[in-house]
Specification:
The chain is α/β, with parallel strands linked by helices. The protein has one domain: 3-Layer(aba) Sandwich (Rossmann fold), CATH 3.40.50. The chain is built from six helices and seven strands. It has a seven-stranded mixed β-sheet, sandwiched between helices. α5 runs antiparallel to α6.
Amino acid sequence: MKYLIVGLGNPGVDYAETRHNIGFKTLDALAGASNVVFTPSRYADVAEIKHKGRTLILIKPQTFMNLSGKAVNYWLQQEKIPAERMMVITDDIALPFGKIRIRAKGSHGGHNGLRHIQEVLGTPNYARLRFGVGNDFHPGDQVKYVLAPWGNEEASALEERFKVVNEAMLSFVSIGLERTMNFYNNK
């Protein structure tokens, strides 16, 4: 059985260490822990890992955040994976730093990457894991904040948080979304 795990971010060195690229960073951590590397492919950098008899196709869209739906749709079709076996990892300013929230469906919440995925797929019904990046910014500075690098304290805490997120992704593919949400939400 195949699953598509999508980490949202923006390509390029200018964005590599920003809050908005937490999706890329979590997939990099999962791939590293599994001793696999990403390779450039159509619309995305792609890696594949096996876990408990399941195949996880990890993608980091290279279409920029606002056009993520193009890569997601392509890889769902290419790998013949239904949307209910997909999880999208993204940043969330409504959550404190490091807190995660997993949902089976929902609105894009103003997140342009999720908005484009929903527009292209025509549905909000897919799992998403939101990673809290905090909201320590002045009104009107949201874009500047999410496109800024992590603070020193945050950066040093990321590795521990990646372990929890990676466990949650693997839980999603092995025991299902409902049980994963019950165990990992707000952890």
